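Structure tokens please, single chain.
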Amino acid sequence: MNFIKAILFGIIEGITEWMPISSTAHMKILNVFFPLEVSSEFYDVFEVVIQLGAILALLLIFWNKIWPFGHSDNPLGKGALSDIKKDKFFLWIKIVLACLPAIIFELFLDDKLSLVNEDNEMRVIGISLLAVGFVFLFVEMIVKNKKFTVTNTKKITILQAIVIGLAQLIAAIFPGVSRSGATIIAALLVGISRSTATEFTFELAIPVMFGASLMKILKYGMAFSAAEIMIMLFGCISAFMVSLFMIRFVLNYVKRNTFTIFGIYRILMGIIVLIYLR
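Here you go.
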């Protein structure tokens, strides 16, 4: 049954990771109804490492957008620098700068600023789902008739990237906020279009989620049993397969639609969690 449940977790991860509705919240909720019969320490690792399948799907789809090496009509310079694509090079500078706040938090502040425990976790998730849902509706009202000044990731400034990166800290502190939700809201408020905000958020996920998975594995100590490895593998494969569809779906959706539907969904889920799971 654990293997079947792992596939289900992977499906939910693949669906929710790419929408601003908090994959962490949905994984926690799923574990209430269909708990994996594993140790709490391993589940903490599984919940993060399963994201690797989703990230591999993102890498496959975004490879040409992010790979900085190869022949280019606009190289970074001459000689060895001629094989570095200038636009991709500066994109990675912005990604790294945006990731720095989350990296510093994870390394030095995570344990000290932890506000969540087993007793209040679902309550915090419910409140976070609800609150960010209302924020989405409010922000969409603000930007409804706004003409966005940034319509592709090349135009994102260093300052905008840092502001988006700082928004990730809210998601790091409060489960249920959603990393993508926080960064998309910040991006919209600083003048970045919905599709560009979503694309940049996806690009930020690559180092953040790879780093988080690596840290969890190292913290656990690599002491996985054969059954635990298979559980993670089943989850990662299903997350990968579903993500291949969901990434394209979300990118196409936000080109023509607002984030209002996600805000409404979050509010409804928050109410359900606060009523039935708190």
